[in-house]
Specification:
alpha+beta; 208 residues; single chain
Length: 208
Amino acid sequence: LALIRQDRGLIVFVKQDQHSILPALYKASATWNEKKEKAANLEAGLSLKTVLLSCVIRELLSRLQTVTSTEDGKAKLLAAGWINNEGHWLYQRWCAKTKRLIRDEDRTPLTHDNAVRLLTSLRDSLNGDIIHKFAATQPLYKLEEAGHQSATFFLEVSLRGKESDLVHAMLLQLINSSLTHLIGISVKRENGQRCKLAQQVAELVFRG
């Protein structure tokens, strides 16, 4: 079971900059905890892990639609190397020689329409117990108090049911996608030594 979870696990690196999702996550976490303290129980509501991941997906969808609504926004995305001339979102990989992210020619770019559909479906599917885990390595309030410039989240989808399998498949499409740069995150597989390497790469990229 542990090996299965590892195979399905993802790791989400979040950097703190002007585009970062971290402030929104801090706020969502604080709001959820305030409601928890006031309520007798939260059985009718969503768990914190689901609330936080929903915050990530909703914000990513919102920024995707906003930045692509103007020609200036599209031009900036093209200049950054996040989209191609057709407006499709590129996948990237780490180049050890140049020490930067470059286009991954082995993966087919995600069209804008498919990106919108993907995020919309994810947003609408995050309910119940589909998300087994989505938590930072440290409590968010501690990260906020310490003024950390980055955070690492571990993400696991439930092992049970077709809906969980569908959500997992959709999340896999975000791995190494330039689309996630819109909110300052990077999604990788969690898999032992590869996870450690991914963290080192993320730290190099985020420092830039």
